[in-house]
Specification:
The complex is a heterodimer of chains A (about 475) and B (about 375).
Chain A lengths: L6 E4 L3 H12 L5 E3 L23 H5 L3 H14 L4 E3 L2 E6 L3 E6 L2 E6 L2 E4 L3 E3 L12 E3 H11 L6 E7 L1 H12 L3 E7 L3 H6 L1 H4 L3 H16 L4 E3 L2 E7 L3 E7 L5 E5 L2 E6 L1 E3 L2 H5 L4 E4 L4 E4 L12 E3 L9 H18 L12 H21 L15 E3 L4 E2 H9 L6 H8 L12 H12 L18 E2 L20
Parallel strand pairs in A: 1-2, 1-7, 2-3, 7-20, 9-16, 10-11, 10-16, 11-12
Antiparallel strand pairs in A: 4-5, 5-6, 8-17, 13-14, 14-15, 18-19, 21-22
Helix pairs in contact in A: 1-3, 1-10, 4-5, 5-8, 10-11, 12-14
Chain B lengths: L8 E8 L3 H12 L4 E4 L8 H4 L3 E2 L9 H11 L2 H5 L10 E5 L2 H16 L5 E4 H7 L9 E5 L3 E2 L2 H14 L3 E3 L4 E6 L4 E5 L2 E10 L5 H6 L8 E3 L1 E8 L7 E4 L5 E4 L4 E8 L1 E2 L4 E2 L2 H14 L7 E7 L2 E3 L6 E4 L6 E5 L5 H18 L24
Parallel strand pairs in B: 1-2, 1-11, 2-8, 4-14, 11-22
Antiparallel strand pairs in B: 3-7, 4-6, 5-6, 9-10, 10-11, 12-20, 13-16, 13-19, 14-15, 15-16, 17-18, 21-22
The chains are: A alpha/beta (about 475), B alpha+beta (about 375).
Chain lengths: ~475, ~375
């Protein structure tokens, strides 16, 4: 039935797995490409096979253990019916073809239909000292715990904002790590004000309340509405300094900091696939356009999960299913309605979660004016070592009013991360300096490879063609 | 300079296209006291001028391009004084590599020809060559070094000229589309964004899009869009001493001070408006590049890119007066070799406007040279 169609899913987190499941139910055998060694994505990350430690699902995933197991089991059942390619990086997309790298081998994967479920990474708002050894993203701190069975330090401070801040602190404390403090830049008042919207997903809201309560009951210091001043240390983290809600200076010794300010969708692949982008005020970044079903503006390219806009793991499962249904409809496969989830119901559920997300984004908004206060000598782009001062000088001279120009002139975003980590900072600083809204200072265009790739594997592709004569420039 | 019609700004010269040609022309004209408007529909130096490889290369140029190339090379020696920055210009020398015996003959012939234009180069091969360049792979059997050549950062140089033009008094307008361009027998009339403007002279330096403007005056040049494919590695210890090319073209490589190796060759994709790199091309060029530079094999690729450029059938640009319209100057179709030439072209065009002639021979670049060509090559 699907002989003429070659469906590829990128990402084996909740969105990718549910999309695959829905496709398989319609007798489509998708290729599932995932950068991780085992399925589950970031939220339901599994310890590597033979990790040398055993932690139960309940320990690893807490309240989410049941959901994690359900997603893991769903994927396990799918394995015979899909072409699963773990440990595989999709690093480029052009003309209905993905370029992938797996175990030192390059493979080109053609597709007729593509579902992008690329997930998210932590949003980073830099502060002085953020490049010291011992500073991790919250996601990185979670990977250490879930995949490596270790903590990022022996006395850890979690700083930033967002629900993940409390979850990771809870997970660390539960695992026996010493959590010295949780420093939240969002004031409690704003979190309270957003509570009605967050109650649209009451169980999620309740969990957030539970983590905070648990941490408090176990004597973990929690401060809200703080302003983070700097992370101290020479080579490695020695402590952190901040000001309280009332502006009183505080400091604390620690040897590691887990930091994050909410999540940032990984949109590079959608960009390379030719999707049109729009500025999303809620996510405070540029996102690929999509309809309620997950169809992008590019033909036969579908988007699901946090990679298309942060909505969390539950929404990712729903959106993965919904996008797959759209795909099935678009290629003209008729299925028994009873065998498949109901599209309208999925969309209604997604809309309800969107209300909750709006509450979350409001309650845990990243510090808006941070860029104004970045000291000139602070590194913003760590790959190319570009400081806030260098960028400011460039902007103030009138040379750069747009972020791609700022990139050209200062090298911000031109290094190994290609702006994945620092791009938002560049936009924030540009907006702060020019007084323009974030939406009006441009968008960093993605360029392959999405992540750095070694050159050697590129040399062993049998399909290497010879350059045509007319392409012989000098 | 006064316009009789109210609300119309009049300029001595309007320049269509804020690439390196347009920007350097604007700078030269503004410095000579002319009232200049430089109109760019996106951002100055953000197209081919700003994203090219960055070769400041006279070596390998044809005899008809050499006088212009030599003039342009002199401009690159004066960047700090002209635009206030060095543009990361490095006089590294350009090493053009031979991969077969016959290539050495090509290099010898060029070297003799270029010497007549005052460009020195010396051809090397055999053990002396190998000893001097231990970092080159066995695929390179010899080469010709042109010590006066080098490389610069187009991302800095091209916007730098536009900025300098603005400081010199040019009216530089970005994100402004030119439309309704006509010649009323005396002046050029047009719309810049919403505003009506007029000029005595019009410079068409719109790069891959220049035929749109030429077309307003019943002219066109056979030119097709090309999308040169480029990529860059993570920073590596410095080892590529010169800017590199090969006889016959197809690969070019340089290493910037920061350590990144910038490598180009072959073509990406595009639709005439936007360009996208091609992984198939990147792979093909990588294989050849690694044969010449084995150390690249251990590097990480961090970025690929392309840009939209106009290519003519003979690989030479179109520079000079229109054949249909007085005081219309064309300068486009640089066919992938414009980064060096452009600031020289700026000086030449400024001379044509202010003195009616130029000391640099440009007859070979006339738009009229294609008139005998079959129409089928026109795109």
């Amino acid at each position: 039935m699907s002989g003429a169609h070659r469906v590829v899913i990128v990402g084996a987190g909740p969105a990718g797995i549910r999309a695959a499941e829905t496709l398989v139910a319609a007798s489509v055998r998708p290729v599932v490409i995932d950068e991780n060694a085992r399925w589950g994505g970031q939220i339901y990350r599994q310890p590597p096979a033979g990790a040398g430690f055993k932690r139960s699902a309940a320990t690893l995933y807490g309240f989410e253990a049941k959901k994690a197991e359900a997603v893991h089991d769903a994927m396990a059942k799918l394995l015979p019916k899909i072409d699963y390619r773990p440990d595989t990086l999709a690093w480029a997309c052009e003309q209905n073809r993905l370029d992938t790298l797996h175990a030192g081998r390059e493979t080109s994967v053609p597709f007729t239909h593509l579902i992008i479920a690329s997930g998210a990474t932590d949003r980073i708002v830099p502060l002085p000292g953020w490049t010291l050894a011992g500073v991790f993203t919250l996601g990185g701190a979670q990977v250490a715990l879930k995949a490596q069975g270790c903590a990022i330090g022996s006395r850890v401070v979690f700083a930033g904002t967002g629900p993940l801040l409390y979850l990771v602190a809870y997970q660390y404390a539960k695992a026996g790590a010493r959590v010295a403090a949780v420093l939240d830049t969002s004031p409690l008042a704003r979190q309270a004000a957003a509570a009605p919207r967050m109650l649209s997903q009451p169980s999620m809201f309740a969990k957030g309340v539970y983590y905070v309560g648990w941490l408090q009951a176990h004597g973990v210091r929690i401060e809200r509405g703080v302003t983070l001043d700097r992370i101290d240390g020479d080579d490695a983290v020695r402590g952190i300094r901040w000001r309280t809600r009332r502006g009183e200076p505080r400091s604390l010794d620690c040897d590691a900091v887990g930091m994050g300010f909410g999540l940032r969708p990984e949109t590079q692949l959608a960009d390379l696939a030719g999707c049109r982008f729009r500025f999303d005020a809620l996510n405070r970044c540029w996102l690929p356009e999509r309809d309620a079903a997950g169809r992008s503006s590019a033909r036969n390219v579908y988007l699901a999960g946090d990679g298309a806009g942060i909505a969390g793991a539950d929404a990712a499962e729903l959106a993965g299913r919904r996008a797959a249904l759209a795909l099935i409809e678009d290629i003209g496969i008729v299925t028994h309605r009873s065998a498949q989830p109901d599209a309208t119901k999925l969309e209604r559920e997604l809309a309800r979660i969107a209300v909750f997300r709006a509450g979350i984004e409001h309650a845990f908004a990243p510090p808006v004016n941070a860029a104004q206060h970045w000291p000139d000598d602070m590194t913003v782009c760590r790959c190319e070592d570009v400081t806030a001062g260098t960028m400011r000088a460039c902007i103030r001279s009138g040379l750069a009013t747009e972020v791609n120009r700022l990139k050209s002139l200062t090298r911000i975003g031109m290094g190994r991360c290609q702006g994945r980590m620092c791009g938002e900072s560049a936009i924030a600083l540009l907006a702060a300096e020019t007084g323009k809204p974030l939406a009006d200072v441009g968008r960093l265009r993605s360029q392959a490879p999405i992540k750095p790739i070694p050159i050697t594997p590129m040399l062993y592709d049998d399909g290497v063609h010879v350059q045509p004569e007319e392409a012989h420039d000098e | 300079m006064n316009d009789t019609r109210a609300g119309v700004s009049h300029f001595d010269v309007v320049i269509a296209g804020g690439g390196l040609v347009g920007s350097s022309t604007a700078l030269a004209l503004a410095k000579s006291g002319m009232r200049v408007a430089l109109i760019e529909r996106r951002f100055c130096g953000a197209q081919a001028s700003g994203v090219n490889y960055g070769g400041v290369r006279t070596q390998g140029r044809t005899a008809e391009q050499l006088p212009l190339a030599v003039r342009a090379r002199r401009v690159y020696g004066r960047l700090p004084e002209l635009i206030g920055i060095d543009g990361e210009m490095v006089v590294s020398g350009h090493l053009r590599l031979a991969r077969r015996e016959a290539d050495l003959d090509v290099l010898d012939r060029w070297s003799a020809m270029a010497r007549e234009h005052g460009v020195e180069s010396h051809v090397m091969s055999g053990p002396a060559f190998r000893q001097r360049y231990p970092w080159l792979g066995p695929a390179a059997i010899g080469g010709s070094l042109c010590p006066s050549d080098g490389h610069a950062n187009p991302r800095l140089v091209s916007p730098g000229f536009a900025h300098a033009a603005r400081r010199a008094g040019a009216d530089v307008r970005e994100q402004t589309e030119l439309s309704d361009i006509t010649f009323d027998g005396t002046r050029f009339q047009m719309r810049a964004g919403r505003e009506r403007i007029s000029s005595d002279w019009l410079v068409n330096s719109a790069g891959a899009w220049a035929n749109r403007i030429a077309g307003s005056f019943g002219e066109s040049a056979p030119m097709k869009p090309i999308y040169p494919n480029m990529w860059v590695t993570e920073p590596l210890p410095l080892f590529i001493g010169h800017s590199l090319g090969v006889v016959g073209g197809g690969i070019y490589a340089r290493q910037v001070e920061r350590g990144n190796c910038v490598i180009g060759g072959g073509r990406g994709h595009g639709d005439g408006e936007y360009a996208q790199p091609s992984t198939a091309t990147t792979r093909a060029v990588m294989r050849d590049a690694c044969a010449l530079l084995p150390a690249l094999r251990d590097a990480l690729l961090i970025r690929t890119w392309s840009g939209v450029e106009g290519e003519t059938p003979d690989g030479n640009p179109i520079i000079g007066l229109s054949r249909t319209t007085p005081r219309l100057l064309h300068a486009f179709g640089f066919s992938g070799g414009g980064f060096l030439l452009a600031p020289g072209v700026g000086e030449v065009l400024a001379e044509l406007v202010t003195q009616g002639e130029t000391s640099t021979p440009i007859d070979a670049f006339s738009i009229g040279r294609f008139s005998s060509m079959p129409l089928s090559v026109t795109h």
